[in-house]
């Protein structure tokens, strides 16, 4: 290929050399063809980067001979090399080659020598003695090499030393410190062998210890004595006790380490030991001005219990906390704030911790945020934070635990002299965040409560807003997305199990939903101890199931969605793992469905079903549209995986409760089809909502009023009359969690407007799905035991979490107003006369 014009050559040599310094050397050689100037310059490049990744011997040999040749070539050219960077998978057979290169570096007086020699442990390259008497090296980074029998170290110019994955014994530490009068920076990454990191007499001002390899007990102790160190960082994973013996000149400390969780039998006093370690560190770092704590330390802090704080950081002016705002960490966060009351700047990095997370032994204290009726931050003394001027929040992605906004609000309330709070808000539309009832909820809540910090400027910066792709077609999954197949499965199981003398208790549902028939069958056979093989079970069960296909109900919102899309001419396909004939048999009973789909693809029409993308790609092909122009709606994880792999946008509608957090690859997770917002995907919006409500095909539920959670009137000031779960859980399972409204008939009393929530009340995180009807009428008494009948006529919103009780209550009152007004509309008012509501005292008995 002819190069039109050699623009590179017109660049100044210094610029070209700078570019060369970043390139691996083989690229430098290769690209020299592109540019005339390059050709003469490359051998003057003073930075040599030799990087090679493949591990096979053939390619390694080629690489080694390339380095050999390059160095000979450069040697002849007698140029000045200042950095050599070698990074390749070392093998013992290359020892003499590497030694030649190292000696080349020594004789050419390079200033920087990096040897990143990954290897299998026994192959570690032994650093040659010559290297330890050197006055030109200023910076080195050695990984996976070996020190051996070094008597003296003399590094007259060395300023930075990084060693990784190497044994570094105490005597070697001393030799290095004594022999390197200019050494300022020392970093040890996952090294081992040292017990005393004694830097006395040296000039090291920054020390980083990143993990410690190969020690597994807390009895082992490492002492750090580093009187000159100004910046200290402890990070990575430790398994032993660390003592900071003398760090009196430290001004900035980062405690971002975590511990390897010990084996079960060693756990009993693990946190106590952790507290001791941390407390000792506090003692040594009391004077430090700038302190950063990682999530681990905060968790240890939180485990302290509600007693007094045995430490303080009186000099700390800038505190950085790397922690999500969750119940689990709150006590720790509060305690750290308490102990540093001369703060000028607070930085909170809300990202999740790096360390493994599944084991948590701090008991989750419910309602930790308000202890004795006080919100946590009000536990800080009145004169706390008088100097606090700036708060910076990074990694904020909207509400996750629901406590974030509450926490920030309280921070505004307690800090009297705050000048600015900057929130770097990453709004990725991420599915894990709890849906906000309103878009500007967070900013609004914060703007409304400036509290004592009247002059604080609140800056909320959107750091990242991912644009959603626009769709022009829709592909739908069938079972669990459009059809309530699981409901019918449960019904048949009930009958089936009776034959074997067992009783279906409904609690098994989660084990069946979303599974393949074989997996589900195996679970049932095992759980109920049936005298059948999985295959036998299926042979008996399947005919019963297919008999019932006509009884599979459409899920709420399915008909609405299909009719709407068809009405607007949006191309639609159906893609299901079940066989084509089963699909046809199932949708036969739903008028208008079959004609709405321009393509139907069954699991038996492709080589591999979901999670393979094939089924979706096939659907796109049949519609002769580009895969990327589709929105897929799916309820199962394999389905979401398949659709993403097909390059499509996916909205997940999980059919199992409280599972939305596992659908991490979906573009959005919604609670039910009722909450689908097509306009977000560039598709025509639904237009059937009236005055904030969505009309539903009315449905009924009723029974005697029983005692509920005992918090409706007490905690919220909103009484909700609970129904007995017996008998109604089946009806409830058909209806998605959310806020609904309608009419309530109370035996012998009358008919009233009612607004209700159905679900698990995320704010209280109930374990059972309940219905909580609030009758919009003032009763002067309780009516436990009386018969209550409800006709549900419309839907308002999905259930949500809230940062505080006040915001939850506020929202429920908004719902009340919406319901009260809507129920006056003729289309809802007419159901007031429904005979189901007119129950007399006699009927009840
Ligand atoms: P529970 O723990 O039983 O849910 P609540 O504090 O929620 O207690 O109060 C609900 C009870 O309050 C109902 O069972 C009913 O007897 C009574 N009650 C009084 N007024 C109302 C109302 N307007 N709506 C619902 N329940 C009410
Ligand atoms: N609880 C929640 O956790 N999230 C909600 O979005 C929610 N919405 C509600 C809406 C209405 C109209 C009512 C009456 C209650 C709602 N609740 C919600 C439930 C409330 O927390 C519940 O009534 C109390 O837990 C009493 O048991
Ligand atoms: Mg109640």
UniProtKB/TrEMBL annotation:
Gene Ontology biological process terms from the UniProt entry: FMN biosynthetic process; riboflavin biosynthetic process
Enzyme Commission (EC) number: 2.7.1.26
ATP-binding found in the keyword field: yes
Span of domain F-box: 5-41
Keyword Transcription regulation: no
Class of this enzyme: transferase
Pathway: Cofactor biosynthesis; FMN biosynthesis; FMN from riboflavin (ATP route): step 1/1
A Pfam family: LRR_At5g56370
PROSITE patterns assigned to the protein according to its UniProt record, in alphabetical order: FBOX (PS50181)
NCBIfam families tied to this protein: HAD-SF-IA-v3 (TIGR01509)
Protein name stated in the entry: riboflavin kinase
Species name: Capsicum baccatum (Peruvian pepper)
């Amino acid at each position: 290929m002819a190069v039109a014009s050699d623009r590179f050559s017109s660049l100044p040599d210094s610029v070209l050399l700078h570019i060369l310094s970043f390139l691996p050397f083989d690229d430098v050689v290769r690209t020299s063809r592109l540019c005339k100037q390059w050709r003469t310059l490359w051998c003057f490049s003073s930075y040599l980067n030799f990087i090679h990744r493949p591990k096979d011997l053939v390619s390694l040999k080629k690489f080694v001979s390339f380095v050999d040749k390059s160095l000979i070539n450069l040697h002849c050219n007698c140029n000045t090399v200042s950095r050599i960077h070698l990074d390749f998978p070392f093998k013992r057979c290359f020892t003499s080659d590497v030694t030649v290169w190292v000696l080349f570096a020594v004789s050419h007086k390079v200033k920087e020598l990096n040897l990143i020699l990954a290897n299998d442990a026994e192959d570690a390259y032994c650093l040659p003695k010559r290297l330890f008497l050197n006055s030109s090296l200023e910076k080195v980074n050695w990984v996976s090499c070996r020190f051996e029998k070094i008597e003296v170290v003399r590094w007259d110019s060395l300023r930075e030393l990084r060693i990784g994955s190497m044994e570094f014994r105490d005597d070697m530490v001393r030799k290095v410190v004594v022999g390197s009068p200019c050494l300022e920076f020392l970093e040890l990454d996952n090294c081992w062998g040292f017990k005393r990191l004694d830097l006395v007499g040296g000039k090291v001002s920054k020390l980083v210890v990143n993990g410690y390899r190969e020690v597994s007990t807390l009895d082992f102790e490492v002492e750090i004595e580093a009187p000159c160190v100004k910046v200290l960082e402890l990070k990575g994973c430790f398994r032993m006790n660390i003592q900071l013996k003398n760090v009196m000149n430290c001004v900035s400390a980062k405690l971002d380490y975590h511990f390897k969780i010990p084996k079960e039998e060693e756990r009993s006093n693990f946190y106590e030991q952790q507290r001791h370690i941390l407390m000792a560190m506090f003692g040594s770092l009391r004077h430090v001005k700038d302190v950063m704590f990682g999530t681990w330390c905060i968790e240890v802090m939180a485990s302290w219990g509600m007693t007094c704080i045995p430490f303080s950081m009186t000099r700390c002016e800038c505190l950085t906390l790397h922690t999500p705002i969750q119940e689990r960490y709150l006590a720790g966060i509060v305690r750290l704030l308490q102990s540093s009351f001369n703060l000028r700047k607070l930085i909170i990095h809300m990202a999740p911790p790096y360390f493994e997370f599944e084991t948590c032994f701090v008991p989750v204290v419910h309602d930790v945020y308000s202890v004795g009726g006080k919100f946590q931050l009000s536990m800080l003394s009145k004169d706390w934070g008088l100097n606090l001027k700036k708060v910076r929040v990074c990694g904020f992605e909207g509400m996750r635990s629901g406590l974030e906004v509450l926490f920030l609000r309280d921070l505004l309330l307690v800090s009297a002299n705050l000048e600015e709070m900057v929130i770097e808000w990453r709004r990725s539309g991420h599915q894990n965040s709890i849906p906000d009832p309103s878009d500007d909820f967070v900013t609004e809540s914060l703007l409304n409560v400036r509290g004592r910090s009247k002059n604080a400027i609140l800056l909320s910066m959107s750091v990242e807003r991912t644009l959603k792709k626009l769709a022009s077609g829709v592909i739908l999954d069938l079972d669990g997305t459009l059809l309530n197949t699981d409901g019918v499965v449960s019904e048949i199981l009930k009958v089936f199990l009776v034959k074997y003398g067992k009783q279906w208790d409904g609690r098994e549902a989660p084990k069946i939903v979303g599974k393949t028939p074989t997996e589900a069958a195996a679970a049932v056979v095992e759980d109920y101890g049936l005298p059948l093989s999985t295959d036998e079970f299926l042979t008996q069960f399947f005919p019963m199931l297919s008999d019932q296909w006509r009884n599979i109900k459409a899920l709420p919102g399915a008909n609405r969605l299909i009719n709407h899309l068809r009405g607007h001419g949006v191309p639609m396909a159906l893609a299901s793992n079940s066989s084509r004939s089963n699909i046809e048999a199932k949708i036969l009973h739903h008028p208008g469905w079959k004609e709405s789909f321009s393509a139907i693809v069954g699991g038996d029409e492709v080589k591999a079903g979901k999670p393979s993308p094939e089924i979706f790609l096939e659907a796109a092909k049949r519609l002769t549209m580009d895969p990327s122009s589709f929105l897929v709606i799916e309820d199962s994880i394999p389905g979401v995986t398949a659709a993403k792999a097909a390059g499509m946008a996916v909205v997940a509608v999980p059919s199992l409760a409280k599972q939305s957090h596992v659908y991490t690859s979906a573009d959005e997770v919604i609670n039910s089809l009722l909450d689908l917002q097509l306009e977000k995907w560039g598709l025509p919006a639904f237009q059937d909502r009236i005055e904030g409500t969505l009309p539903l095909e009315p449905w009924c539920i009723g029974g005697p009023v029983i005692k509920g959670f005992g918090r409706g009137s007490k905690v919220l000031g909103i009484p909700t009359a609970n129904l007995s779960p017996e008998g109604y859980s089946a009806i409830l399972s058909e209806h998605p969690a959310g806020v609904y409204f309608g009419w309530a008939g109370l035996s012998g009393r009358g008919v009233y407007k009612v607004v209700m929530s159905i679900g698990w009340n995320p704010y209280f995180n109930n374990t059972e799905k309940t219905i909580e009807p609030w009758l919009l009428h003032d009763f002067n008494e309780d009516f436990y035991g009386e018969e209550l009948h409800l006709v549900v006529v419309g839907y308002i919103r999905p259930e949500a979490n809230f940062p505080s009780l006040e915001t939850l209550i506020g929202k429920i009152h908004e719902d009340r107003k919406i319901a009260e007004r809507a129920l006056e509309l003729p289309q809802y008012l007419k159901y007031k006369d429904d005979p189901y509501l007119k129950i007399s005292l006699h009927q009840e008995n």
